[in-house]
Amino acid sequence: MVRAVRFDPPLESARLVRRYKRFLADVECPDGRQLTLHCANTGAMTGCSEPGLEVWYTTSHNPARKYPHGLEVVCTPLGRVGVNTARANQIVHEALLESRVAGIAGYTGVAREVRVPGADARLDFCLEGMAGRCWIEVKSMTLGEAGGRGAFPDAVSARALRHVETLAECRSRGDRAVLLFCAQHTGIAWATTADEVDPAYGAAVRRAAAAGVEVLAFACRIDRQSISLGDPLPVRLP
Predict the structure, then answer these.
(1) Would the pLDDT of 103 be above 80?
(2) Residues 117-124: what's their mean pLDDT?
(3) 74 and 96 housed in the same domain
(4) Res. 2: pLDDT tops 60
(5) How far apart are CA 40 and CA 158, in angstroms?
(6) 238 lies in a domain?
(7) Of 86, 130, 149, 183, which sees the most CB atoms within 10 A?
(8) Distance from C-alpha of 163 to C-alpha of 123, rounded to nearest angstrom
(9) Dihedrals φ, ψ of 79, to 5°?
(10) What is the domain range of residue 70?
(11) Sorting pLDDT into bands at 50, 70 and 90, what band is 1?
């Protein structure tokens, strides 16, 4: 059985009123109710934060949560966008457990949030097996444009830059290193770096790729019941 991030009950629908303070979004439900959702996304959410767009959200029954509802998907004219950046690691983790990530095979151990020896940094995954050791850093790609272009990041990110540099260090020590873009946008057909947003990040990715870091991208399947990793996407580095 193909694993995925599943929503039970299925995601509910509303209309976006506004996204503000980075972590909050006001929505209007079909019955007229107004809700404030938690938005687990620190980026600019370019193209998926316009008022009036249909959104899908979860509801938690945990009494400790200040905001029980969480924004998950925004339905844009270009496609459905999974805006909860925490989902990207969950999606990739499920796929790794079933060896469903194209090009990454021969590993039996999958560890999450592993500190890199000799570096003051953690990477999302460390795989071990007969093929050796493989470090993977996952980035959630939500910036989609007409023509199928997907790009990362949608805002300047010093943290993402450090991750790329750490991958390059891992590769220089003889380990396999992979930068994996999880395209949580059904309209994305190919992936690249958003040099127009963060030129330093784009330059770092190109240096890392030249040093042997693999840059991969995968589509996502998104509906109200689940989000799962889809097919590989072409990566075009400027």
Answers:
(1) yes
(2) 89
(3) no
(4) no
(5) 18
(6) no
(7) 183
(8) 7
(9) 150, 175
(10) 5-78
(11) very low
